[in-house]
Fold these 3 entries.
Entry 1:
Amino acid sequence: MVPVTRVQTGLRMERTTLKVLKGLAEYLDLSLGDLVEGIVLHAFEGRSPFGPEAIATIDQLKAVYGLTLTAADAHELDEGR
């Protein structure tokens, strides 16, 4: 184990993206924070955090929750304020 100090944070996220993340965390028996932390650490190294089985689960969750956003949308999101 690697000792760490964790802090509480609040962040805003698109609703269906959050639903998919929460569903995936539940499926993987992880906390949402642990899942996001793992995704970020993999991304920082240019690696994918998910294998084929997890990606299939993500695709199912995206269909259930209506998530249609893709990486191409990441810099185009607008809350319409």
Note: The CA atoms of residues 17 and 69 lie 8 Å apart.
Entry 2:
Amino acid sequence: MATDAPKKLLEPFFWTLFSAGGVVAALLMPVHIFLFGLAFPLGWIRDLSHTRALALIEHPLVRIYLFVFCSLPLFHWAHRFRYTLYDGLQIKHLNEVITVFCYGGAIIGTALAGYLLLSLP
């Protein structure tokens, strides 16, 4: 029973990341898809030049926004994919491997996003 204690402590944390990632994906992704998929290419809004984009990314709040925009949907994906494999495909005997793969991928993606945002000029 001692091994169940860390799992029970981490489960609400992962559900919180799942929920926050779902909110970010539902509210912010459509805006970005509209802007970069329709508005800029069709000329509805003045195009974002490379120098303007770099000037925008230099602001710390924009970097935090982009970090949240990249990392939270990864945890949403990880949680959803984990439970799809666990419940949907009934792969319950590989629960630990699936958990490490899913959340490890989200953690690696989050670390990569943080590194890339910090390494920008």
Note: The mean pLDDT is 88.
Entry 3:
Amino acid sequence: MMIILYILLFIVCLSVLIMIHELGHLAMAKAFNVYCFEYSIGMGPALFRKKRKNGETYFALRAFPFGGFVSMYGEGDDEKNLPDGIEHIPEERALNKIKKWKRAIILLAGVTMNALLAIVLFFVAAALPQKMIYLNYFEVKENSVAYNAGIQLGDYLMYTEPADPDDKDDAVVKAQKEGYYVVSMDSVATYTDSSTRTVAALIETNQKVLNFKVHNFNKCLVFYEVEDNQIIYSKEVTAEQSTLDYVDIKMTFGRKGTYDREKDEFGQIDTLDVILHRQADGTFEESGLDMYLDVTKLNFGQMLKQTFVDFGESSIVIVKAVGGLFIGRGWKDVGGIISIYTQTTSILNNFGAATFIKVWGIISVNLAIMNLLPFPGLDGWQLLVLIIEATAHKEIPQKVKSIVSVIGISLLLTLMVAILVKDIIGLF
């Protein structure tokens, strides 16, 4: 049942982005008195198609909610193929007969609406309570293992730093790349036969900490054996190992109340031993630590600032990502409809409404930028053709434009199918 609800939510969210985009085209076309045959959400067979009494534009909902269009008089050869019931449309109402600057505004209206929608979504996301997990300090339960070891709220966990941050072979650099924070490289696992192994204590951020529902230290903690100062990820040390007695985690803290802001250093740094014994049920005993979860509410000024920070940062990231595709980088990270569905659903489950809305804002920015690419079938291509015609003072033959558009749309559909296949393979 939940899967059906998630799919419906995804379709609604995607349809809103498309609807807003096409609404921009429609609104500007109407403003310049261009005759619009149809405003459609979705592609394929029409499920619903109706126009108001004495109206001229049909509003349609089509079977496949992965696209949309506004059909305007003067886009192609429709002057010779008017819909049933329409005998004549004044030539001045054709898209290709209005001034070029007006046509440019109509073409840019879709991406503009997506950009505005993104700003609205970023603002709504900023207006909701903001959650942040702090990996560097904890909630400490009284009379727990960590409490008895001397850890206090406000103590700053000092992560193990790489010897050389630019050394790709450094164990800490590798761990950070794989999505781990290194708590300790010299913790010790002791077994019932008194043998010991040096282990790395890591906070697993790539799957667990990023989920606001799980910020229990034990559940985010993993141990791997260390050999020659390298973490051996194939040798995980778990509580289920029957001969394991306990793990002594050596945690280094900057002590509460001794931080010097001017020097940017702590006046007192202590290394504390947090010992987690293996219990009869095959789990480690609770440490008594929860990573600090901070929930804040931004004021109006902060919300406004965060809105445009999010818009600017997402735009830069997307432009860089798109640019990378043209030089052969980033194709492995490209995803289609299935990928977007799985990612957004996971984000809703793990991060809540604020981040979910923010992600749809990023998708709206992405839709705007992608539509600006000068590729046949996209708004950017039509804008490029318009610029060429305005510069050359000569219209490109409609037949040529139609052929190029058909080729471009065919390539786009082929790419979409290829990405869909990639998504399906990725599921397995």
Note: The chain has eleven helices and 13 strands.
